[in-house]
Amino acid sequence: MIWLTLTAGSCRFFGEYWPTFLFGHLACSLPAPLPEADKTRWIELFKYPRLVAAGCLTGLTQTGGASLALWGPTLLVLVLQTSPEHAAYLTIFSTMAAVVGRFFITALIEPLGRRGSATLCMVFGGTLMVLAGYLHDIYIDTWSLFYMLFIAQSFFGSANYTVVGPYMAEIWPARLRASGMGLSYGVGNCGKFLGPLGLALIMGAGDVIKPAAPNLAMLGPAFAYFASWYVLGLIGFWVFGYEPRGRTFDEIDSALDAPARSAARSARAPAL
């Protein structure tokens, strides 16, 4: 009887009071629930028209470099009069130059800033691209000047996107950073078909999908067309964008949202 009484009492204690005893102090030590995050709509991006312009224009700088990389083997076959297999082999070295360029520019981003390092890449990349187009038939001994300029342009063209890629995101306030990056990157990717299309039309290809026309006399203007997209990037950086070097994300958010907060306070202020 004593055992049954103790057992019943123990069961009653564990069933009624033990959960409170065990978890009650834990509940007191739990942090308060986080406040609900503010919901933003992508249309709010257009409250910052200068940032929209800066992000989209800098994103479009990939047009020339991406188009040259896409159609590089085809152009090497045409210019060097070589086989597709050998042209594919030659692109290995331009790809290696592109990788080295991305590491190289990381050492200059902080000393020169985003604007300075991107300007360096775009000026050199655009100049080398134009020279490659107009000097495609020049040889130094047995070395094709077109191929050497092709490799050098890959170096600076790839380095440029190491700057542009993060820049398209960091210029936005935190609540719009993902959406702003998506808009800029999406617009920039339009260059991946605008570039090859322009090359085909300028060189007089009968098929706009395969710019392999033998009219190499128009290769210079076609490469100048590629280089012109870097000019848009310079406008994006220096006319519409700003330099985020040395500024934290909190400082950027405060600077960008200050006009909106001032306008909201003015709207709430009673008329005198």
Structure description:
The chain is an all-alpha fold. The chain has a domain at 53-242: MFS general substrate transporter like domains (Growth Hormone, Chain: A). 74% of the residues lie in helices and 1% in strands. It has eleven helices and two strands. The chain has helices spanning 2-16, 18-29, 49-59, 62-80, 84-106, 109-134, 145-170, 177-189, 191-203, 219-240, 249-268; strands spanning 139-140, 143-144. A two-stranded antiparallel ribbon has the order 1-2. A hairpin with a 2-residue loop joins β1 and β2 (143-144). It starts with a helix and ends with a helix. The model is unreliable at 1-15 and 17-24 (pLDDT under 50).
Keywords:
272 residues; mainly alpha; Growth Hormone, Chain: A; two-stranded antiparallel ribbon; 11 helices; 2 strands; elongated; disordered N terminus
Mean pLDDT: 82
Strand order of the largest sheet: 1-2
Uncertain parts: 1-15, 17-24
Quaternary class: single chain
Describe the protein's topology:
Elements: H1 2-16, H2 18-29, H3 49-59, H4 62-80, H5 84-106, H6 109-134, E1 139-140, E2 143-144, H7 145-170, H8 177-189, H9 191-203, H10 219-240, H11 249-268
Antiparallel strand pairs: 1-2
Helix pairs in contact: 3-7, 3-8, 3-10, 4-5, 4-7, 4-9, 4-10, 5-7, 6-7, 6-10, 7-8, 9-10
Summed up:
By secondary structure, this protein is mainly alpha-helical. It has helices at 2-16, 18-29, 49-59, 62-80, 84-106, 109-134, 145-170, 177-189, 191-203, 219-240, 249-268, and strands at 139-140, 143-144.
